[in-house]
Design brief:
Elements lengths: L5 H7 L2 E5 L8 H13 L4 E6 L2 H4 L21 H8 L6 H10 L3 E6 L2 H10 L4 E3 L7 H8 L5 E4 L5 H13 L5 E6 L14 H9 L2 E6 L5 H8 L4 E5 L17 H18 L8 H7 L4 E4 L14 E4 L10 H4 L21
Parallel strand pairs: 1-2, 1-8, 2-3, 4-5, 5-6, 6-7, 7-8
Antiparallel strand pairs: 9-10
Length: about 350
């Protein structure tokens, strides 16, 4: 079982979250099979969303509640969309129990205080603040007051919005905060991802930072890890043929597993700042250049560019001494192919 303190785990190893969202198609068995596939694909956690259509919006048909912003959901009414997408609350304790039996963390994004209260009864180990809720400061304060890690997506946020959200958590005494760079477009175009914000967020806020990704494929998450992301969140679907509101920008098991495998490779490759050579590198250094005698020489003969050269392998004197030894005299007869040492000349 992963350490329940998600943010501490993320400092040790990139923490990978599979987002279930609406990808159960209102079928509990599909939800269970999806969680099993998440585990098999290498996810550390499954994230749910806890809302009902009536806790997130109004059942209203006027123009304000019609989606018309160039999204994949254009033409739908908000209440209808959320009715199609929400995860029934009576499923959620069962899904959490199942995930934990598989050795995974299970937590959720609450969208109002009643959802927070419900998730507290479930004893979730963390909370996620969704991108579009980052401006709901009273909700963030209520979430943070529970004293658990708070992971905040920054998809629609300005710098001031992020600062306000972080300050809201800290006002409750909760400093266990993570920020996820996010582009709230579905799917997100590469030119709007702006991954260079990740190191800047780390610098400005000093918090565990990651990526909530809505691009196609896994190029962006891999690059994010190289730039310092410690949490990666990606929508997961058992099979895109299931359909549903989020299917288009969700990743199937094979792709998700490839992403996890590549992230683990990048983690190893990033390593640490260390100018000392490993044993393997020291061994490889034997193939570097050094100063060798390239013609037979006699005692008293001068060192010249004709009888000493910088060549491979690396058993002789360091090439940096080449210019200063020219003109010095050999102390003994030496054969071609002998590595030059300081003891060989006066």
């Amino acid at each position: 079982m992963i350490d329940k303190n998600i943010l501490e785990s993320a400092k040790e190893k990139v923490f990978i979250i599979a987002e279930l969202s609406a990808n159960h198609n209102r079928d509990f068995d599909i939800a269970l099979r999806t969680i099993k596939a998440m585990k098999d694909s290498g996810a550390d956690a499954v994230k749910l969303q806890t809302y009902t259509p009536d806790t997130i919006t109004l059942d209203c048909r006027n123009e304000y509640f019609q989606i018309k912003h160039g999204t994949i959901w254009d033409g739908k009414n908000l209440h209808d969309l959320y009715k199609e997408a929400y995860t029934p609350w009576d499923w959620q304790p069962k899904l959490k129990k199942y995930a934990e039996e598989l050795g995974m963390i299970c937590f959720s994004s609450p969208f109002d205080k009643t959802a927070v209260d419900f998730l507290e009864k479930m004893d979730v180990p963390a909370y996620k603040v969704a991108s579009f809720e980052i401006t709901d400061i009273p909700l963030i304060e209520y979430i943070a007051s529970k004293g658990k890690p708070v992971i905040i997506s920054t998809g629609i946020a300005s710098y001031e919005d992020i600062k306000d959200a972080v300050d809201a958590c800290r006002r409750t005494g909760n400093n266990n905060i993570a920020l996820l760079k996010c582009t709230s477009a579905y799917p997100a175009p590469y030119e709007e991802v702006n991954l260079n914000m990740i190191p800047d967020i780390i610098k400005k806020f000093g918090l565990v930072t990651g990526l909530s990704d809505h691009t196609e494929g896994y190029t962006v998450p891999i690059a994010a890890v190289a730039l310092g992301a410690r949490i990666i969140e990606k929508h997961f679907i058992l099979d895109k043929k299931i359909g549903g509101p989020d299917a288009e920008f969700s990743m199937e098991p094979a792709g998700f597993k490839n992403m996890v495998d590549e992230i683990r490779k990048v983690e190893k490759a990033l390593g640490k700042v260390d100018y000392d050579l490993s044993d393997k590198m020291k061994k490889s250094r034997e193939f570097s250049r050094s100063l060798f005698i390239v013609k037979d020489v006699c005692t008293g003969e001068e060192i010249t560019g004709e009888n000493v050269k910088s060549i491979r392998p690396g058993y002789g004197l360091h090439p940096k001494y080449y210019n200063e030894i020219l003109g010095k005299k050999f102390k003994s007869d030496l054969k071609k192919g002998t590595p030059l040492s300081k003891e060989d000349f006066e």
